[in-house]
């Protein structure tokens, strides 16, 4: 594959009106959608008009005047980027006069530009250079000394890209990219005329400015002014491979641009339907962990966790794993071992791990870390709608009129989708922006950010989601705002009536629950009215909904609201879980839960089970297996003895670290397959080095049910892709698997899973992506679900009674802790902490309201101890009004903090998804890390020792 | 490690779990709540947990809510 840039058509596609226009460009007759610019029309027909200030991911601006054309019957030379096509128009893109004019423009630019092309990092990849060539510039009459621009200092503060103002041509593409695409408004053009220049907000450097390092401006810049540091270091790429980000559930696709085996940069792919050419700092820049020196490259084993690790060959490690599992099963029984699949691994790898367990271990003891994040989504949406997935694609948000965000912080957790959402929230071309309702204990960024402001922010007390949503339902029912026609047609009317009677009780009104939620009843009423009557209403929710003792109830309460108002089954509406890790959706789809096969079919379902039995040639267990917390309990009780953990760090990500540690310590064989010696590996007996998403083929499924290819761009430095390692373990256990390539695994998935029947690699390569269900009934996949009726038949209204959590505040633990994530770090941080993203988030901080801080004599930056009934940790305080009095907040990205030492083991009633979002705590000044943290650090250091190789021979 | 460690024993947790399910579906009315709770255990609990909870209804009956006790009475243990 050779390197070419993606074609830039100069201006974005026209907003679809359905009408088209016919015109003539350089003698060719062409027909294009109304509203298309002359520049885009010309580009789409294959002729490129010189341009500098236009690029097709931002609106045209018309400042450089390089793109002039002649239009018959019009005076002057209109700019083709700002002039829309018209019926019968006759355009000429090249003439003597145009050439002259364009050269004149170029001359002006070049006279103020340093001519060090040969040593410039963008050499060969610079639009200024290209355009100088395109207009045939040969001479600069002004001389090169009129320059005002040159010799300015570079801003190298951002860890990933440099800003060299001397090379800036003030085209403002970066400013427009930051405003329109990213929505951060961090850049401005200061000054006028020749003195004008680009600057991050208020003359700060990039790192200390508002900039979130999404890279949109770098991509938009036509010169070397904004350039990836890696390009400066390595040079321009020579090939590109399209692949999918391995960080979050947005599932952005990128062109991995390579020079030989070295990754030069990740550039968001314009044709990617999830991200539409945008990215965030993680996917764009934070991939350095893939080559980090901490990566473990050789398999290791040890007899006890007291011993140092011993490096062994792959053969030995695999044989040891298989024989340990067999030994344990013969001693303690078939159900004494199990495994955990990863939402970070591919669909194919996940499928293989659960197959290893069901086919090879002969039980259903398989679970996934989705347990700790979105299992309530699976349960809630399956119960109400009949399928465990979000109902829309991301594009749908552009048709929404009212956006309700609950328990999610998209600008930090799902940044690229948040940028889309913000685009819809800002007015555009006279169309008002969508209205916004935010239900969250914290004042998240969306509540107020440049050009976006929530119409209603309901800052409820953590743990009262169900009460709040029921109160909104109360308003919708009692004020007759429900959509009777929709309900009668699509849902069970009697169930609706039962539900309506339940929510209409006065005890469930906004007024009645005000003392509970702490939110003014009038605001709740207004928000409910807006959602019910404001046009297309779309709900987006995250872990702030699921990670509660009533997570499943909250998901069902959300589904009830959407059904009651008819906001399901078309574009612009729907119920959309924002998934945490990149492949949470995929891991759930692939049968990672102990009670179901791929495609959400219960293990007790005889037809499904016999299909798998036939394919796999063994009888399968009809009884559900153990979930992660149940496995840990069984381990402490001595009945569960061995576990295979792929790509997960349950010690750090699961609640109540003590409980997890005790469970792991009680097992005889803990196998961890991961990139790094993670925290869980401190309790492991076998370590199998994993591979990164850059080193393997496969697919990920994002939060829109979109299946996208992951493509290998370099050989695995640990030797094997993860699916190959699982296959070796399976074969050492005698299963006789013969996959040569992940595409064969997908073929098996397709054959065994009706919703995936039409998913094959050749198809994905052609389409770019497919949204399941993709089968005979929906050959091109399914962007919007439940269009003509619910998957389960009739939509089911489920009465969701508010049951307060047992985790209660009291005199000893008077504050409520809630947890979350931030933009630059990802989950337990194993990857992002090994990149320069540390520049933005070097440690976890405890957010506390000024009043609570003052009462305790805590100043900003002080070390504080954070205690709950489960344990204690310490970290530094950050005093802010983003949290309400009585509520504190922290992230859990750093193992030193171990926020989960203090979270309890209360969990969702239906799925055991842990209640991360509510823990009663006390906060006190302290001197530094707690004893536990020090002990833990010592234990971790001890347990991570690797014996020198001589000793191992 | 801190001695405040709040880790429920497996038995306590199983009882807690079944009561929690029962309490969350109680609004459906007694009969449906019992069925829903029993179905839930049938669909999501592993056989050892089912046996365990059944045994606990005999040894620690006083700790089960009425719905929970009735529901456990209906599950068939493999
Ligand atoms: S990196 Fe993103 S946020 Fe920062 S200035 Fe550029 S476009 Fe704006
Ligand atoms: S930094 Fe680049 S994109 Fe921004 S104005 Fe200068 S040349 Fe244009
Ligand atoms: S982390 Fe998420 S939003 Fe960021 S680039 Fe990756 S998939 Fe996109
Ligand atoms: S590209 Fe049209 S004016 Fe600059």
UniProtKB/TrEMBL annotation, chain A:
Ranges where the 2Fe-2S ferredoxin-type domain occurs: 19-97
GO biological process, one term: respiratory electron transport chain
This protein's UniProt keywords: 2Fe-2S, 4Fe-4S, Iron, Iron-sulfur, Metal-binding, Oxidoreductase, Repeat
Residues in 4Fe-4S Mo/W bis-MGD-type domain copies: 238-294
Domain of life of the organism encoding this protein: Bacteria
Residue span, 4Fe-4S ferredoxin-type domain: 159-190, 202-231
GO molecular function: 2 iron, 2 sulfur cluster binding; 4 iron, 4 sulfur cluster binding; formate dehydrogenase (NAD+) activity; metal ion binding; molybdopterin cofactor binding; NADH dehydrogenase activity
Record-given protein name: Formate dehydrogenase
Family recorded in the similarity comment: Belongs to the complex I 75 kDa subunit family. In the C-terminal section; belongs to the prokaryotic molybdopterin-containing oxidoreductase family.
Entries under NCBIfam families matching the protein: Fdh-alpha
InterPro entries reported in the protein's UniProt record: 2Fe-2S_ferredoxin-like_sf, 2Fe-2S_ferredoxin-type, 4Fe4S_Fe-S-bd, 4Fe4S_Fe_S_CS, Asp_de-COase-like_dom_sf, Formate_Dh-H_N, Formate_DH_asu, MoPterin_dinucl-bd_dom
Domain 4Fe-4S His(Cys)3-ligated-type, residue spans: 97-136
Name of one Pfam family that matches: Fer4
SMART domains: Molybdop_Fe4S4, NADH-G_4Fe-4S_3
GO CC annotations on file: membrane; oxidoreductase complex
Species per Swiss-Prot/TrEMBL record: Sphingobium chungbukense
Automatic annotation (TrEMBL), chain B:
Pfam families in alphabetical order: FdsD (PF11390)
UniProt superkingdom: Bacteria
UniProt name for this protein: Formate dehydrogenase
């Amino acid at each position: 594959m050779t390197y070419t840039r993606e074609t830039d058509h100069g201006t974005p596609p026209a907003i679809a009106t359905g009408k088209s226009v016919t015109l003539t460009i350089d003698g060719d007759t062409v027909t294009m959608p109304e509203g298309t610019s002359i520049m885009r029309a010309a580009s789409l027909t294959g002729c490129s008009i010189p341009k500098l200030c236009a690029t097709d991911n931002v609106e045209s601006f018309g400042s450089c005047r390089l793109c002039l054309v002649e239009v018959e019957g019009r005076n002057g030379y209109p700019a083709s980027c700002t002039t829309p096509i018209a019926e019968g128009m006759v355009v000429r893109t090249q003439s003597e006069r145009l050439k002259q004019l364009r050269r004149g423009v170029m001359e002006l630019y070049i006279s103020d530009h340093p001519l060090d092309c040969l040593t410039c990092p963008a050499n060969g990849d610079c639009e200024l250079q290209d355009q100088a060539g395109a207009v045939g510039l040969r001479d600069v009459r002004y001389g090169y000394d009129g320059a005002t621009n040159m010799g300015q200092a570079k801003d190298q503060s951002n860890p990933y890209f440099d800003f060299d103002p001397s090379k800036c041509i003030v085209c403002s593409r970066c400013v427009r990219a930051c405003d329109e695409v990213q929505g951060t408004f961090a850049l401005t053009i200061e000054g006028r005329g020749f003195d004008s220049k680009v600057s991050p907000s208020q003359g700060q450097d990039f790192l200390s400015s508002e900039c979130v390092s999404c890279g949109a401006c770098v991509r938009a810049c036509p010169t070397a002014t904004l350039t990836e540091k890696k390009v400066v270091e390595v040079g321009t790429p020579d090939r590109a491979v399209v692949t999918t980000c391995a960080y979050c559930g947005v599932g952005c696709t990128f062109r991995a641009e390579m020079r030989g085996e070295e990754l030069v940069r990740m550039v968001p792919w314009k044709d990617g339907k999830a991200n539409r050419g945008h990215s965030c700092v993680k996917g764009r820049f934070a991939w350095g962990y893939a080559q980090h020196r901490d990566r473990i490259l050789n398999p290791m084993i040890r007899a006890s966790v007291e011993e140092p690790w011993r490096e062994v060959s792959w053969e030995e490690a695999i044989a040891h794993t298989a024989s340990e599992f067999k030994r344990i099963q013969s001693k303690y029984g078939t159900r004494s071992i199990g495994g955990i699949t990863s939402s970070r691994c591919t669909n194919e790898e996940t499928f293989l791990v659960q197959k290893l367990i069901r086919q090879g271990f002969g039980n259903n003891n398989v679970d996934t870390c989705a347990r700790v994040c979105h299992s309530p989504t699976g349960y809630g949406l399956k119960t109400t709608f009949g399928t465990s997935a979000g109902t829309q694609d991301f594009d749908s948000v552009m048709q929404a009129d009212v956006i309700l965000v609950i328990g999610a912080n998209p600008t930090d957790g799902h940044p690229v989708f948040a940028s889309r959402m913000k685009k819809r929230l800002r007015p555009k071309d006279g169309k008002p922006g969508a209205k916004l309702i935010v239900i969250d204990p914290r004042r998240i960024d969306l509540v107020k950010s440049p050009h976006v402001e929530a119409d209603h922010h309901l800052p409820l007390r953590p743990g009262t989601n169900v009460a709040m949503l029921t109160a909104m339902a109360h308003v919708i029912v009692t004020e007759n705002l429900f959509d009777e026609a929709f309900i009668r047609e699509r849902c069970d009317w009697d169930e609706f009536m039962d539900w309506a009677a339940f929510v209409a009780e006065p005890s469930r009104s906004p007024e009645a629950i005000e003392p509970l939620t702490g939110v003014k009843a009038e605001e709740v009423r207004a928000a409910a009215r807006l959602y019910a009557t404001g046009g297309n209403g779309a709900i987006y929710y995250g872990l702030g909904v699921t990670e509660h003792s009533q997570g499943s109830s909250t998901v069902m309460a959300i589904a009830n609201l959407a059904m009651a108002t008819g906001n399901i089954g078309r574009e612009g509406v729907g119920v959309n879980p924002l998934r945490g890790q990149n492949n949470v959706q995929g891991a759930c789809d692939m049968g990672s839960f102990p009670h179901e096969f791929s495609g959400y079919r219960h293990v007790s379902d005889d037809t499904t089970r016999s299909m798998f039995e036939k394919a796999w040639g063994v009888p399968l267990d009809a009884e559900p297996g153990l979930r992660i917390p149940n496995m840990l309990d069984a381990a402490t009780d001595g009945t569960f003895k061995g576990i295979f953990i792929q790509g997960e760090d349950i010690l750090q990500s699961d609640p109540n670290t003590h409980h997890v540690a005790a469970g792991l310590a009680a097992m005889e064989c803990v196998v961890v397959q991961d990139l790094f010696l993670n925290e869980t590996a401190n309790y492991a007996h076998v370590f199998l080095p994993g591979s990164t998403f850059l080193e393997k083929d496969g697919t990920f499924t994002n939060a829109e049910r979109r299946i996208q290819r992951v493509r290998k761009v370099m050989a695995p430095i640990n030797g094997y892709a993860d699916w190959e390692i699982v296959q070796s373990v399976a074969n050492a256990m005698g299963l006789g698997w013969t996959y040569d390539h992940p595409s064969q695994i997908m073929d098996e998935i397709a054959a065994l899973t009706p919703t995936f029947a039409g998913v094959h690699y050749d198809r994905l390569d052609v389409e770019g992506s497919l949204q399941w269900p993709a089968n005979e009934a929906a050959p091109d996949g399914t962007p919007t679900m439940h269009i003509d009726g619910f998957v389960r038949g009739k939509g089911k209204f489920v009465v969701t009674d508010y049951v307060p959590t047992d985790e209660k505040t009291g005199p000893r633990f008077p504050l409520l802790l809630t947890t979350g994530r931030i933009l630059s770090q990802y989950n337990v941080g194993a990857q992002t902490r090994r990149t320069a993203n540390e520049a933005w988030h070097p440690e976890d901080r405890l957010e506390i309201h000024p009043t609570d801080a003052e009462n305790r004599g805590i100043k900003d930056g002080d070390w504080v101890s954070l205690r709950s009934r489960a344990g204690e940790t310490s970290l530094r305080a950050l005093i802010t009004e983003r949290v309400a009095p009585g509520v504190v907040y922290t992230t859990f990205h750093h193992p030193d903090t171990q926020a989960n030492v203090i979270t309890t083991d209360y969990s969702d009633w239906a799925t055991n998804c842990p209640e991360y979002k509510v823990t009663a705590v006390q906060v006190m000044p302290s001197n530094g890390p707690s004893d536990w943290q020090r002990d833990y650090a010592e234990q971790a250091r001890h347990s991570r020792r690797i014996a020198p190789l001589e000793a191992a021979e | 490690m801190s001695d405040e460690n709040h880790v429920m024993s497996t038995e306590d947790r199983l009882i807690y779990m079944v009561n929690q399910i029962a309490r969350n579906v109680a609004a459906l009315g007694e009969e449906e709540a019992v069925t829903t709770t029993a179905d839930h255990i049938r669909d999501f609990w592993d056989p050892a947990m089912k046996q365990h909870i059944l045994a606990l209804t005999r040894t620690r009956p006083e700790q089960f809510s009425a719905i929970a006790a009735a529901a456990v009475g209906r599950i068939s243990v493999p």
